[in-house]
Amino acid sequence: MVKVFPFGLVGAWLARWRSCGAGLAGSALFALALVTTPALAAERPVLLVVGDSLSTAYGFEQEAGWVTLLDERLDGSVRVINASISGETSGGGASRLPELLGQHDPDIVLLELGGNDGLRGLPPTQLKANLAEMIEASQAIGAEVLLLGIDIPPNYGQAYRRAFTDVFSRLAETYDTPLVPFLLEGVALEEGLMQSDGIHPTAEAQPIILDNVWPALEPLLESNGVQLAEVAAE
């Protein structure tokens, strides 16, 4: 934790250093360290995840979720903020995003929404409008956006399913944003990787989900100054 010291206390410490023979140069270096340490800490890029239960470790311990695993892989080089809410729709995310952007001023925004829209049979046009609003708001503050696409069960009908999944690819093209076409690639329908509800992945699936996200996220991290040579080798 970075501590903020009252200027009076700092001055007293400097005076004591001088009386002990530390000298002006040492005092200056000490004062500089107090000023620059918080600044250096604040230079870490901020990554904001706005999603639903697929990003909240639904049904198992938070520590096993893919967002937590991402945070661990980045090892403190990025400040990861998970603002996901179980049950969230694209409309809910769009209404919450302006406050989140103002509060955290992220450099990268991961949008993982749409699953609940699809399960509720909401119009794909509505999903598209909400996600477009979120992309535009994020880009307006200079943040880079990564879209995490999702699919829905075939029983919703091919026409609806196609219109739903097309939303993500069309938005990625329109706004020139990277896209993970299907967040649950290699997970959905796989035995042992989905919970009994058939909707939520298990804890065992979380590393696979992170590996699905990583190739699209890596260039955004690098463009924000994150050194990934050692991380990518893990």
UniProtKB/TrEMBL annotation:
Record-annotated SGNH hydrolase-type esterase domain positions: 49-205
GO molecular function, one term: phosphatidylcholine lysophospholipase activity
Protein name per Swiss-Prot or TrEMBL: Arylesterase
Natural source organism: Billgrantia kenyensis
